[in-house]
Amino acid sequence: MRWENLTGTPGSGPAALFGAGSVVTRTFDTPEFRGITFHEVRARSVLNRVPGASRMPFEWTVNPYRGCSHACVYCFARKTHGYLDLDTGTGFDSQIVVKVNAPELLRRELAAPRWTGAHVAMGTNVDCYQRAEGRYRLMPGIIGALRERANPFSILTKGTLILRDLPLLRQAAEVTEVGVCVSVGFTDTGLWRTVEPGTPSPAARLAAVRALTDAGLECGVLMAPVIPFLGDSPEQLRATVRAIAASGATSVTPLVLHLRPGAREWFTAWLGRHHPHLTGRYERMYAGGSYAPTWYQRRITRQVHELAAEFGIGPARRGAARAVAARERTAGPAPAGPTQLTLM
């Protein structure tokens, strides 16, 4: 593992992502953490600027973890584990990097005069409510730091642990824009058990959507991924959109499976073990790169939007899953001056 290339003292250069001598490796002999190794680090920066070429509709993210015990076979973030010389397959699922100082570091970075109060997205790389969060409890401090500065933010998750922080989210929504989005790509339990083995069930996630909306928070559903030939039949799409509508979700946005380097190899190996008859079809569908053909994406989007209209919900507007109108806003500090902080 190349921790030596990523640690250093302040001023040692952009490659020094963690403080010198800050890595502590732990294992816990409890059922929920058996087989998982945690690497506790003290990050040098926690606000990450999204590259300009990204398709994402936001500019800044916070990711308190690297690696994810959700173990989704398609996860695009797998490649990032390679930066640490960690395996992008089982290593990504079981070697979790924990930025133990994330809340205090974020509080300091948000208070810097150069910070302009831009929207901060969370859960866009790995899930901030994966199992590790149950032990390390980083999110309450992170949400608290954003609330104190009245800084708008959003959370995307497959983790039902978000309900633990519901009181904090409601408090934050009173002073700033808060968006919550839960990812549910399908309701097929057989598919879920093999492709997302470490996640709460789709039914449990939709129950979380109901709890969030009942508490007065707008909660959209990112219907992702729609998996070609396994989760995209008209019957499957209808069942999923119907369940999403029944959960009280304020929007549904479909996203077809994409297979970036790192994830592509791991997913292809999984496909060969579980559905070998589909390997040729996938090779043809993704021959042009990481994304399914445009015609296919448009077809899925049209079908989902038509079903959403039938069941009384609409597609998310750009940023809508990240904006809860506060009933009463209070003025927060007014930081000024743009900056580019060290990427993490």
Mean pLDDT: 87
Structural class, by secondary structure, is alpha/beta
The N- and C-terminal alpha carbons lie at a distance of 17 Å
User: What coarse outline follows from CA principal-axis ratios?
Assistant: globular
Uncertain residue segments = 5-16, 317-344
- Counting H and I runs of at least 4 residues, what is the number of helices? 12
Strand content: 15-25%
Residues in helix, % = 25-40%
- Rg over alpha carbons: 20 Å
Number of beta strands = 13
Q: Quick one: biggest sheet?
A: 7 strands, mixed
Order of secondary-structure elements = HEEEEEEEHEHEHHEHEHHEHEHHH
User: Which strands sit side by side, in order, in the main sheet?
Assistant: 5-6-9-10-11-12-13
Short account of what is shown:
This protein has 344 residues and is of the alpha/beta class. It has helices at residues 3-6, 90-94, 102-110, 132-136, 139-148, 166-173, 189-195, 202-214, 234-246, 263-274, 279-285, 294-311, and strands at 7-8, 18-19, 24-27, 37-41, 47-49, 60-62, 65-66, 95-99, 120-122, 153-157, 178-183, 219-226, 252-256.
Structure description:
By secondary structure, this protein is of the alpha/beta class. 32% of the residues lie in helices and 15% in strands. β12, α9 (234-246) and β13 (252-256) form a beta-alpha-beta unit. α3 (102-110) runs parallel beside α5 and α9 packs across α12. The longest helix is centred in the C-terminal third of the chain and has 18 residues, at 294-311. The model is unreliable at 5-16 and 317-344 (pLDDT under 50).
